[in-house]
Structure formats: C-alpha cells, structure tokens
Amino acid sequence: VTALTENENPEKLLKSRGYKLTGPRKMLLNILETNRGRCFTAQDLYEQLKETGIEFSTVYRNLELLADEGIVSVIRGNKDTRSYELCSGHHHHHLVCVNCGATRCIDSCPMSLITEHEWQGFTPIGHQFEIIGICPDCAKNSYTEKPG
Ligand SMILES: [Zn+2]
Ligand SMILES: [Zn+2]
Ligand SMILES: [Zn+2]
Question: Is 9 in contact with 86 (CB distance < 8 Å)?
Fold first, then answer.
C-alpha cells in the first residue's frame, strides 16, 4: 500500500480504501493528527480514550489496521514494544528507551555525515538508524540496566 503523505487527510484516505470511519478510528486519528511527529503506544492511546468506554483490544486492532493501510507507521522498540505515529511522509529517526520502550522522533539523519570517500563506491538504497538509551522518566526513577 502507498503510505500517507504529509498533506493528505488520513480519514479521506481510509474511506477511499473502502473502510468506514468508525468512532474508534475517528478518535485515534484525531489524537494522532493533532500530535503529528509524536509516537504513542497502544497503551498511551488507550489511556487517553478509556473514558469513552473503548476496549484496549479495539484500540490495538484499529492501530494495526491503520498500520497495514500505511496511514500509521510502527516503531518497534526493544522488548516487543510497538509505538505508532501518523505517517509524516517525512524521513526521520527515533530514540528508543531500553527500559520502558518509549519512543521519540528526531529530525537529524546521520546519512549526510558520511563522505563520498567513505561510501567506497557503494550505492545506498536505504538505511535504518535508531538510538537506544534511557528516557527522562526512567532516568528520573534511577533506572540501571540489569544484565540479562
Ligand atoms: Zn523509559
Ligand atoms: Zn517518528
Ligand atoms: Zn535517515
């Protein structure tokens, strides 16, 4: 599927693919749209919506559907954590907390730092880059990584 681009309306795209804009989908897209450039776990989104009586499984299922449709991108953290953000159509990378799996978007891309000489004739067609570390919340709780 073609991913959502920067100026495209996610609700329109979903409908154009034959999906109904159900209450849960509308609420999820609304949060993701007003927070473009931020990632959320299914749990984060569930916390924000649980007053509406929504089930966690509904949140999760709809996020996965939006991901399959290229409307939302999935950032895989360590320990099988998954974060979701609205596709921005804009190349960027992520910081991932090794303790809680929280993710943050960063705009810098290290590709521009590699000199022509370093490429040694290699033609890059893609790259993956993420920084793992400790998020401010976990640092506050004086997290220390345990072996194993
Ligand atoms: Zn953390
Ligand atoms: Zn991101
Ligand atoms: Zn990059």
Answer: no
Phi-psi domain of 101 (left: phi exceeds 0; alpha: psi -120 through 50; beta: other): left
CA of 72 relative to ligand 2 center, distance in Å? 10
| H or E, element range at 19 | none
63-85 tens-digit pLDDT: 999 999 999 999 887 777 889 99
What is the Å distance from ligand 3's center to 50 Cα? 35
Query: What is the pLDDT at residue 76?
Result: 83
pLDDT value of residue 12? 94
User: CA–CA separation, 55 vs 147, rounded Å?
Assistant: 36
pLDDT tens-place string over residues 7-33: 889 999 999 999 999 999 999 999 999
Environment of ion ligand 2 (residues, CB < 5 A): 85, 105
Q: Is 65 exposed, middle or buried (0-12, 13-18, 19+ CB in 10 A)?
A: middle
Rounded to an integer, what distance in angstroms lies between the CA atom of residue 91 and that of residue 78? 21
